[in-house]
Write a structure and sequence with these properties.
This protein is mainly beta. Helices cover about 0% and strands about 50% of the residues. It is built from no helices and 17 strands. The strands form 5 sheets. Strands 7, 9, 11, 12, 13 and 15 form a 6-stranded antiparallel sheet that branches. Strands 8-5-17-10-14 form a 5-stranded antiparallel sheet, with no helix packed on it. Strands 1-2 form a two-stranded antiparallel sheet.
Amino acid sequence: MFPGGVATKFFAIGADKVKKLYVGSTQVWALVTFVASGLVKSGSFATSSGNAWSRLTGWTGSTGGTIIESDGIRVPEGLVVNYSVSVTFGADTGPSTTQGARLMNGIAIVNDTETSWTGYGNSSMTKSGTLTGTGELVTVEARASSSGSRGTVIAAGTSLTLTPVT
């Protein structure tokens, strides 16, 4: 951010983008790069009963550029990315369970991603759209009204993908 609130995404000398800008020996600007990033769920995750939202843990990077930080991906402030998020709960018989999932950008719920449904399990939520990075972590949260496999997020079908909008 420059004085007066003017932001810039890049500087160029001719056709070459500048990666860092210095005034004397002080770096005053750096090109922020973000490559397509993705997470796939590794193993299952038992939500706490009582419908409390919990951050999903236990992810593996699905693309070469993914840097997992505290079970999420940090998106630079102001960067617009396309997202695709899917959360799948395990199957079980018995009374139906209220289940839910949402995508978080720091402490804010992303757009229209908070979804809840009632069922016997083996159900999922998939959402896609765009979000603007806040410099905070983008994470996935889930909840369920009962424990057991109906309250367990399973690896199959649970993922998050973030791709920069060019």
